[in-house]
Design brief:
The structure is a homodimer.
Chain A lengths: L24 E3 L8 E3 L6 E2 L4 E10 L2 E7 L8 E2 L2 E3 L6 H13 L3 E12 L4 E10 L10 E7 L12 H14 L7 E4 L10
Parallel strand pairs in A: 4-9, 8-11
Antiparallel strand pairs in A: 1-2, 2-3, 4-5, 4-7, 5-6, 5-10, 8-9
Chain lengths: 196, 196
């Protein structure tokens, strides 16, 4: 997962029109009911929308593959291979590509598994179950280390993202009673520390 | 579904930096492997990513609710209520909101149903099964007409989008043998007419 649009913390404001370069204004366009960034020079409406992060749970026997992050955010923490979906690809292709990029690992997808909305950072995280095809893997540019973990070896306190934790908790609960259902849900911002 | 980013036909190019207004260049940023729109003045990288379209299959007994589109693309064709996911919401909230906006209808989601990638227009279409809560519905701003259809009344030749057709074909096949599994897949551009 590469930092993107402010490192995944949020979506950047639009100051200038990416089409003609003039200053934009914020107003509700005709036929709409929400404020948008609008260019009154060329008429372009600059919509902003949530981004998809797509990943996989690569299985090898009773172990799964995790990557230790070499980049911010959450440098040094462990994650399932995942990243921002690119133009021109399908969700499945994104999962294969990210696993290849981050872990140099080849997988075969075995089913959609979790779709978790993270509204406070405007993202939806989607994970597939997958079969690791061989043991010829190793860290890509964005990983410090790639390794297989049995359930009792998962570094729960060193996982990079709550959607990864949620996905793995579902995974180990479901694995005891196959088949795997699809889980959907939301992950919200943690409560701010009280000022009192 | 509101027209967005070129009416859903594709993703607009970036000519100017939306942060500082200077001209952008296209190059592969350090640590990346794909060409991006980059501002060499303020350093902003302008990533472009696929968009999510979220919708629902609102059920009332053995009928489902469809909307006749009042806007392009596909004006006058029938669709399931659906539209672009907005910032700050979850996929489920997007399905409820779009159904309210396009059909003035209140629904309760009963499960994720289809997730269909449409790579040639850089979209992922996601549909939930849903229960219509009452019959107090009617066309919103983007609909000409809203109506309930039994299976033998579905206007198959007048459906607006192939992801709607795919979703409804799965739906009627699955309905004969509940429970409903989740379907994922891809919808590609139709082949171009041969020049010979």
């Amino acid at each position: 997962m590469r930092p993107q649009d402010n490192g995944g913390i949020g979506i950047r404001p639009v100051n200038f029109c990416s089409n003609c370069g003039n200053k934009v204004v914020t107003r509700i366009p005709s036929g709409d009911d929400k404020p948008r960034f609008v260019c009154d020079d060329c008429g372009t409406i600059h919509y902003r929308n949530p981004l998809m992060v797509i990943g996989a749970i690569p299985e090898w026997g009773d172990k799964i593959l995790l990557c230790k992050r070499a980049i911010e955010p959450r440098l040094g923490f462990w994650t399932l291979p995942a990243g921002f979906m690119e133009l021109g690809e399908s969700t499945g292709q994104a999962a294969l590509r990210e696993t290849l990029e981050e872990a140099n690992a080849r997988i075969e997808l075995t089913g959609l598994y979790t779709m978790l909305s993270v509204p406070h950072v405007n993202q939806v995280h989607i994970f597939y179950r997958a079969r690791l095809l061989d043991l010829d893997f190793g860290p890509g540019m964005e990983s410090l280390e790639v390794a297989l973990f049995a359930e009792n070896e998962i570094p729960w306190d060193e996982l990079a993202f709550r959607t990864v934790t949620t996905t793995l908790k579902h995974y180990y609960a479901d694995r005891r009673q196959k088949p795997f259902p699809v889980h959907t849900g939301e992950v919200h911002a943690p409560p701010r520390p009280s000022k009192s």
